Amino acid sequence: MGVSDARRLRQLEAENGKLKLLLAEATLDNHALAGVAGVLPPCLVGLSELLLVEQEPERRRR
């Protein structure tokens, strides 16, 4: 790997880090807005269904 390749790699890694931060911020914004709107974020829809299925046997026992 030459000097120019190493320099380019560092530039790409820095850009990748910046893009990851932007994505994290956008994701947090989406979750906050969904919470305010009372909408369940898409990433939690499957989880909520799983939790409901797991809770059903407990409801039947009572």
Provide the descriptors you would attach to this structure in a database record.
62 residues, mainly alpha, 89% helix
Explained architecture:
By secondary structure, this protein is mainly alpha-helical. The protein has one domain (3-61). 89% of the residues lie in helices and 0% in strands. The mean pLDDT is 77.
Question: Topology, pairings included?
Answer:
Blueprint: H1 3-37, H2 42-61
Radius of gyration: 21 Å
Structural class: mainly alpha
Pick out the low-confidence regions: none
**Number of discrete domains:** 1
Count of alpha/pi helices: 2
Distance between the termini: 67 Å
Topology order in helix (H) and strand (E) letters:
HH
Proportion of helical residues: over 70%
What gross morphology would you assign? rod-shaped
Chain-averaged pLDDT: 77
**Total number of β-strand segments?**
0
How big a fraction of the residues is strand? Answer: under 5%
Sketch the major β-sheet.
none
Brief characterization of the structure:
The chain is an all-alpha fold and 62 residues long. The protein has two helices and no strands. It has one domain.
